[in-house]
Amino acid sequence: MQKIEIKAEQFFELLKLKDTSMWEIFSQMIDGNEKEIIFLDHEDKILFNYILPSAPEKLEEDRKEFSKQFSDKLSYLN
């Protein structure tokens, strides 16, 4: 499995500048092979990782699950 390391802060800043979502970027990276995307902080410590699926359908399932979990966490905080 290919591993891709991404500086999280720079990645999310770029997404804001380009006015796009990480899911759009992830969808462009799908090529039939799973990839481990590792998000790093400014000290190269692992913040989190994500296994990019080999198929767009699984990516869409992941996006929906992420959105649900994120929404649930936000509602818990309020």
Structural class: alpha+beta
- Number of distinct beta strands: 3
Q: What is the element string, with H for helices and E for strands?
A: EHHEEH
Mean pLDDT level: 89
Percent of residues in helical segments?
A: 40-55%
Percentage of residues in strands: 15-25%
Distance between the termini: 39 Å
Radius of gyration: 13 Å
Number of domains: 1
Largest sheet: 3 strands, mixed
C-alpha geometry:
globular
The number of distinct helices, counting runs of at least 4 residues, comes to 3
Regarding quaternary structure, what we see is: single chain
For the largest beta sheet, what order do the strands appear in spatially?
1-2-3
Low-confidence stretches: none
Describe, in plain words, how this protein is organized in 3D.
By secondary structure, the chain is α+β, with helices and mostly antiparallel strands. The chain has one domain (2-77). 53% of the residues lie in helices and 24% in strands. It has three helices and three strands, in the order E-H-H-E-E-H. Strand 2 and strand 3 form a beta hairpin. This is DUF2750 domain-containing protein. It comes from Chryseobacterium lactis.
